[in-house]
Design a protein that fits this description.
InterPro entries: Cas3-like_dom, CRISPR-assoc_Cas3_HD, CRISPR-assoc_Cas3_HD_sf, DEAD/DEAH_box_helicase_dom, DEAD_box_RNA_helicases, Helicase_ATP-bd, Helicase_C-like, Helicase_Cas3_CRISPR-ass_core. In the N-terminal section; belongs to the CRISPR-associated nuclease Cas3-HD family. In the central section; belongs to the CRISPR-associated helicase Cas3 family. One of its GO terms (molecular function) is ATP binding. It holds the Pfam family Cas3-like_C_2. This protein has 708 residues and is an alpha/beta fold. The chain folds into 4 domains: 82 residues, no CATH class; 220 residues, Rossmann fold (3-Layer(aba) Sandwich), CATH 3.40.50.300; 206 residues, Rossmann fold (3-Layer(aba) Sandwich), CATH 3.40.50; 92 residues, no CATH class. It has 23 helices and 22 strands. An 8-stranded mixed sheet has the order 3-4-2-5-6-1-7-8, sandwiched between helices. A 7-stranded mixed sheet has the order 11-12-10-13-14-9-15, sandwiched between helices. Strands 16, 17, 18 and 19 form a 4-stranded mixed sheet that branches. Strand 13, helix 16 and strand 14 form a beta-alpha-beta unit. The two termini are 53 Å apart.
Length: 708
């Protein structure tokens, strides 16, 4: 409604408010403070509107006798509504939390977070330690102290992927109760949260619970998930708060009262994501929020930029901290703990050995498996991983395969089997006594708790290799060195010799498809530094390796690679510029600096365009989703698989207007038809000429005409 009537109604409403709250005033708030508050006010208004529009809590009623009488009644209803919605956070618990370790087993970083002084006001903490050193538990111990100090009323745990978020949620539901005096609400926030059996169990709890809860109102939408006392989800759900999307301010409001814990923060180092994370920290601090950042391989320059963004958001001066000590616990502008005397990884240093060709990896893994070793081979490209597992199987090694190009149901099945084989309590040998073997892509290196005796990896930037090596001899207390089938941890890296002349195709001969996944300059520097060192000294040697490849004073690359580096630098500047263009203009306030666009128009990550397929089977009753589930909607989600759009060039994908497909999608909304390509899978796995699906190997491009 607009026009004179709307203006009159608005004026009447303001006059009623002035009568009800005669002491209310905005005096003392300058325009900058008002613009800062506008972001939170908008989010609060969305929540209030959602709750106030719920007819169960606020049913239709006769016009009240007066505004004052209406206020009394609605306050009574509001108290019930807010409680039933799950928006009343319990008080933090002051007792020692019952995490999955005993007090006597506290590790050095965990001891440090218990003793470090907290700073006044919004607080940022960096927890930098090796993979597997207990950073998650350290973050929770620090978060409990921060909760007790009033730096938040809840937590949001942000992970790099949906798989890692699911794994964290499983841990969270077991330990988060200890942080609060009463059962807190716990939600899982990402696009596939409905497929998590652990989240489903939490949602299905009815009545009073002494663990964690998630009422139907919070569980109804992933946008509301950030309103729960504890949220676990992808970093993307938080980053949407600083993009001009429809529910950005709702996310801002949900995060503002929470301690934001970002795991694997080094994974957010590409220029686009880095700009977004800086903006998120700046806005979070501006609203009084605090944050904990966890990392094993964060370059000092990136640490400084993140710290500066947070301190600027909090309205404080910032001085860079160039101290390179590692491990390190840093609170910018306040305390730091860098003295961890005698801290040595239980597995000792990791030797680095170069393999010249993939064939050598097949021979090595076959011998190690025969000796009973649990083995992993990490490849940078899906097609290279498929080729590797086929080579191993041809050599008599029954290797499993894990990558991102599976239907979601098959990927979850394979991930569960991998955890059963290589997890903390894994059955690492088959019935024949041979060690189990898995070939995987980068999905293996992020926050997943695997433990291998032997590892082979394609050459990758050193930060990625350190993450991969973190899954090597990981659980030494469960599997000490004398019981391992190999004498010491060794990271075998397939790479060409960095000392020979290098050009743009230097890496392609050993990585036919994966050579272009990472920047060539970073990979050459990794090979030069790592093979010269001959080992990864954990944890003391990690900082020097990271700075040598990802820092600011870098080794000069050979002339033949320089053009590739210059091109990558240009792309990085462009990506950072696009991020700055997309991010909301915080200083302008919500009205001028925000927006209300569709999430799909403002991506949280840049990448090559992908195409999503929905795999289906032919049955006597018509097409049916590839996966089976309790509902068709869930079965469809479990049946999706994606690949780069360019891979489908030249392929005659199924005609979406064909009668059987049209019948299957008849009740779909238009946006879903536009976003999914329905693909019937034949008995032999065929989809169309050049494209097949195999539940053991994933989506297979068999045509030479498909894009690279």
């Amino acid at each position: 409604m607009a026009g004179p009537e709307a203006a009159a109604d608005a004026q009447a409403f303001v006059e009623v408010c002035l009568d009800l709250w005669p002491e209310a005033s905005l005096g003392g708030i300058d325009s900058a403070e008002a613009r800062a508050l506008s972001w939170r006010l908008s989010g609060l208004t969305v929540v209030a509107d959602w709750i106030g529009s719920n007819p169960e809590w606020f049913p239709p009623a006769q016009s009240p006798a007066s505004a004052a009488a209406y206020l009394v009644e609605t306050r009574r209803r509001a108290a019930r509504a807010v409680e039933e919605a799950g928006l009343l956070p319990p008080a933090p618990a002051g007792d020692w939390p019952s995490f999955a370790f005993a007090r006597v087993d506290v590790r050095p970083m965990q001891k440090a977070v218990l003793e470090v002084p907290l700073r006044d006001g919004p607080m940022l903490a960096f927890v930098e330690d090796e993979t597997g050193a207990g950073k998650t538990e350290a973050a929770l111990l620090l978060a409990q102290r921060m909760l007790l100090a009033g730096k938040g009323r809840g937590l949001y745990f942000a992970l790099p992927t949906m798989a890692t978020a699911d794994a964290m949620f499983e841990r969270a539901r077991k330990v988060m109760r200890a942080l609060f005096a009463a059962p807190p609400s716990l939600t899982l926030a990402h696009g596939r949260a409905a497929l998590s059996p652990e989240f489903r169990e939490v949602r299905e709890q009815t009545g009073w619970s002494d663990t964690v809860v998630c009422g139907p109102w919070l569980a109804d939408s992933r946008r509301r998930a950030l309103l729960a006392d504890i949220g676990v989800g992808t970093i993307d759900q938080a980053l949407l708060a600083i993009l001009p999307t429809r529910f950005a301010t709702l996310r801002i409001h949900g995060l503002a009262a929470k301690i934001l814990i970002v795991d694997e923060v080094h994974e957010l180092g590409d220029p686009y994501l880095a700009e977004e994370l800086e903006a998120l920290l700046r806005l979070h601090a501006q609203g009084g929020g605090s944050a904990i950042l966890l990392t094993a391989t964060l370059p000092l320059g990136q640490r400084a930029r993140l710290a500066r963004a947070f301190e600027e958001g909090a309205g404080r001066d910032f001085s860079p901290d160039p101290e390179p000590a590692y491990p390190a616990l840093s609170i910018p502008g306040a305390a730091a703990v860098r003295d961890f005397p005698g801290v040595i990884s239980p597995k000792g240093s990791v030797k680095v050995a170069r393999l010249t060709m993939p064939d050598e990896a097949v021979t090595l893994i076959a011998r190690a498996s025969e000796a009973g070793a649990a083995c992993a081979w990490v490849r940078n490209a899906v097609d290279d991983a498929i080729a590797a597992v086929e080579a191993l199987r041809a050599a008599g090694v029954e290797a499993e395969l894990l990558h991102a190009r599976y239907a979601f149901a098959d990927r979850k099945r394979i991930e569960a089997a991998a955890l059963a084989a290589f997890g903390p309590e894994g059955e690492r040998r088959g019935r024949d006594g041979r060690g189990r073997v898995i070939v995987a892509t980068q999905v293996l290196e992020m926050s997943l708790d695997y433990d291998f005796d032997v590892m082979v990896s394609d050459l990758a930037p050193v930060a990625a290799l350190v993450q991969r090596a973190g899954r090597l001899w990981r659980h030494m207390s469960r599997r000490p060195a004398p019981g391992r089938p190999v004498p010491r941890p060794v990271l075998h890296v397939i790479a060409p010799d960095p000392s020979r002349p290098a050009d743009a195709h230097w890496l392609a001969e050993v990585q036919p498809r994966g050579a272009w996944v990472y920047g060539l300059a970073a990979q050459w520097r990794t090979a030069e530094v790592l093979f010269r060192a001959g080992e990864i000294v954990v944890p003391g040697g990690l900082r020097a390796l990271i700075e040598a490849v990802h820092g600011e004073n870098l080794l000069r690359v050979p002339e033949g690679i320089r053009a590739s580096e210059d091109r990558a630098a240009g792309e990085a500047y462009a990506a950072a510029g696009l991020a700055r263009l997309n991010i909301v203009k915080i200083a302008k306030g919500y009205r001028e600096g925000g927006g209300a666009n569709d999430d799909r128009d403002y991506p949280t990550r840049l990448g090559r365009p992908t195409r999503a397929l929905l795999l289906v089977r032919r049955t006597p009753a018509g097409l049916s989703p590839w996966a089976e589930a309790a509902s068709r909607a869930e079965a469809e989600l479990l049946s999706e698989v994606s690949a780069r759009e360019t891979r489908f060039r030249g392929l005659a994908l199924p005609d979406q207007s064909a009668p059987e497909i049209a019948a299957f999608t008849a009740d779909w909304p238009e946006w879903k038809r536009a976003g999914l390509t329905v693909c019937p899978v034949g008995e032999n796995g065929g989809i169309c000429e050049g494209l097949r699906y195999d539940p053991r190997r994933g989506l297979l491009f068999t045509s030479t005409t498909s894009g690279a």
